[in-house]
Amino acid sequence: MIRIGSTTTQRLPALGVLSLSKLVPLLLLACVMRAESRSSATTSCPPSESAKFICGIVNSTDIVQLPNTHWAITGGKTGPGVPVGHLYLINVNTKTAEAFFPLAHNRYRQDQKLFSSCPGKPDEMKFNAEAVNVRPIGNRKFTLYVINHGGLHDFVNREARESTEIFEVDARVEKPKITWVGCVSTPPMPQSNELAVGNSVTPLPNDAFAITVNPAAALQQMMIMKDPIIGEKILKGEIPGRVMVWSPGTGWQEVPGSEMAGNHGIEASADGKWLYVTALFERGIYRLSLGRVRVDRVVIKTTFHPENIRWGDDGFLYVAGQTVTSGGVFSVGIACRPLASCPFPFKILRIDPRTLHSEELVDEPGGPLFGLATGVAKVGNELWASSVRGTRIAVFPLKETATAPRTERNMGDSDD
């Protein structure tokens, strides 16, 4: 386990003389084993003036708590010195964490009824977890949805597995068990049929789910080639993202009215009639109707670039994202790509879904210990923030309480 402030290393036996083709897979496996077993050596992980930390969680874009349990799950992306991404399991009570998937040994059981078109289990050595979300299915079991950029490099790679991976998490036992049960490939962009990159996912009724997508080629031209013309078009919404809904037996369908500048985080109401979608590049959060003939679309403007959004157990929505800098949102993304940690400012916002009133709860300058929060989860009386570039979760006290009706969205079995 990884306690607050712990990191570990593991020595591997001498490999002898091997060809490069044999050595690379072994080195990648070593990365998986190193993440799985992190208990032999520890280093200090002191708090900052405003936050405590849970260390040993690498490049965690998004985070979610299993409703009414003392467990949380966060996704880990690849990055500098991190060739394999992971899911991490966090014990809320002890604030300890450990790698959850992939491990040296993993459980697979494909659901052929729901996911017969899935080509098979993901390549563990190319796993690259972006967003996560859960659906309670009763008896302390959950469906876990994970956006996976398997093998993706610089946004465009036709050999990549761009998909939503689906897992079953069983929390009835002392420590939850995870089993992969299927996948759905990310669809191309509507109309243009260009390759798309998924960003976030939310469950919908009847085993359906929705994801946000953006055009891969435009992101590559903006972030890798640093094309200012493409960047300006994206900022203006001229190259918009979309929301896509997958349903069993129906497949993918575009959500009308979902064109935005940088569709990113997404959550849905319990009845599936409303979506809450962050528009990263236009500093807005949209409430969008689903299933209506006439689309109802309202925007909440923000003072920062919102990334992931999450329901709290109090019925509010919580959003994290980077604060505007003098260089702009693109410069931050470009600057962070080669870094192991990204020391940029960020904010956390709370939204009342009834009134759409919003309130900033956290406003941090960022620093060498933690910056650029991209995900947030309300955990008890704390706000847990994750970052796409870093080695820890930041834990902030939730100083103010607010009264709102609890929703069915995050009410699962009790943690008796």
Q: Can you put this structure into words, describing what you see?
A:
There is one protein chain. By secondary structure, the protein is mostly beta strands. It has one domain (20-397): TolB, C-terminal domain (Neuraminidase, 6 Propeller). It is 10% helix and 39% strand. It is built from four helices and 25 strands. The strands form six sheets. It has a five-stranded mixed β-sheet with strand order 6-10-9-8-7, with no helix packed on it. A four-stranded antiparallel β-sheet has the order 1-25-24-23, with no helix packed on it. Strands 2-3-4-5 form a four-stranded antiparallel β-sheet. Strand 23 and strand 24 form a beta hairpin. The longest helix is centred in the N-terminal third of the chain and has 17 residues, at 20-36. The protein is globular and about 50 Å long.
Brief overview:
The protein has 416 residues and is mainly beta. The chain has helices at 20-36, 216-223, 228-235, 329-336; strands at residues 52-55, 63-65, 71-76, 86-91, 96-101, 107-108, 129-138, 141-150, 161-170, 177-185, 196-203, 209-215, 242-247, 251-254, 263-268, 274-279, 284-289, 297-301, 304-311, 317-323, 346-351, 358-364, 373-379, 382-387, 392-397.
